[in-house]
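Box 3.1 A note on notation
Throughout this textbook, protein chains are presented in two layers. The first layer is the amino acid sequence; the second is a token string describing backbone geometry. Keep the layers aligned when reading.
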Amino acid sequence: MASMMTAKTFKTIVLGAALLALGACSSAFRSDVATFHKLPRPEGERLMIVPMNEERKDSLEYQQYAAILANHLRHEGYKATGENEPDLIVGFDVQISDGREKVTTIPGGRSDFYWRNYWYWGRYWHPVYPIGYDYDDRLVTRTVYTATLWLEIRKPDGELLFEGRAETETRDRAVPEVVPHLAEALFTDFPGPSGVTRTIKIDLGDGE
């Protein structure tokens, strides 16, 4: 006897397909980036990179972040030389907000499908598939955090030449994993248009 697909089963299939589609979208990292600057064109200036919070100076975590920033700045034409008479001083900070509840909408299937009955024809039962269905959206509540990377560049006399930030929403507080992506977003088309907030999208590839 052929088995008839139930409304519950069909709804599960529709919802599963929607979740797979959402999962496919998760391979892109998005960040809002805002910069303000009066930077001259880089000409190999020597940099000292330090946390804005003096208490983080000896932090191994922040030393890792400094190395990430130094790599980007080298690609822009600067030289990271430690504390030996720098031409410019780069300060940075990383912050993660307290969690907040965010409501999102995903498509879902309705359970009130219409089905025809089985009809007996000769010796066999023949199912007749659905003749109508509709969709309802589902509201999903989840906790999100805002991770922010701050960066500023000053002359040794304190004159501010650049300040910028990159921020993104994240579903957990795994800061070390998100900082490299924030740094990449911040240095996309560096230094960027001054006084403008841009949304930067980074393709993370499949499976990340």
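The first strand starts at residue 28 and ends at 37. The first helix runs from residue 7 to 25.
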